[in-house]
Fold this protein.
Amino acid sequence: MARRSLVLLAVSLTILQVASARSWLNQFTTDGTVRTAYDASGQKVMMLNLDRSSGPAGFNSKEQFLYGEFSIEMKLTRGNSAGTVSCFYLSSGDGDGHDEIDMEFMGNSSGQPVVLNTNVWANGDGKKEHQFDLWFDPSADYHTYTIIWNPENILFKVDDKFIRSFKRYSDLPYPTSKPMTLHATLWDGSYWATEKGKIPIDWNNAPFVVSYRSFYAEACVSGGSCHAGSDGWMHRQLNGAEWGTVRWAERSFMRYNYCQDGWRFPQGLPAECSRH
């Protein structure tokens, strides 16, 4: 985005910084069965619970954002979580022309890797998934998951490792104008999540519980003003070493890349696939 556009953006957005572990819960509304507690270190934890009768659970930001850096620590369900989907994502809504940035954790059969699905929707154009087998047990401890969204690219990060960069091209759809709400959800994705829906939820393992803590955002909030010169995230792009971690993740842990799925796109792969 041109600097003039960023100046205009500064008139309509404001920086939000949420660094306090004790206050972050106040930034959200909740749906379904959601409980709060304190962990051993005294940090507040939001726990989403899913069973056959309760239905999906989640929390949703009270504010809408246009660009920013968002991170949260998550500890996923222990044991057989096949069929469940745990999410940390941004969305402008459910309409046909919506924008969305996803980090979705697809439950597993005991002993199998948890799959992280990353995806970007722009003006209703999606199907841009990169999926990775996580290289650790995400149910054993908390890990940090981060989305950086700016006018130049969308970056996905797990702990200290960048695993994906989705670049903006001026002639292709990209989330630039629709403010998005931040969500965390836990729901029954049996029709899709585990081995393409082959393994549904076993409700005998319920309740399924996913814990969230230490939410952090430095972002532009719809309706105020924004310091567009905050280069920590507004112009953030990967350096050479960080591109190295992306290649490492792709080489060692990538399960699916939409740019390699000719069967799904018989009329030709999406245009950005030839520009990386």
In short: The radius of gyration is 18 Å. Residues 1-22 have pLDDT under 50 and may be disordered.
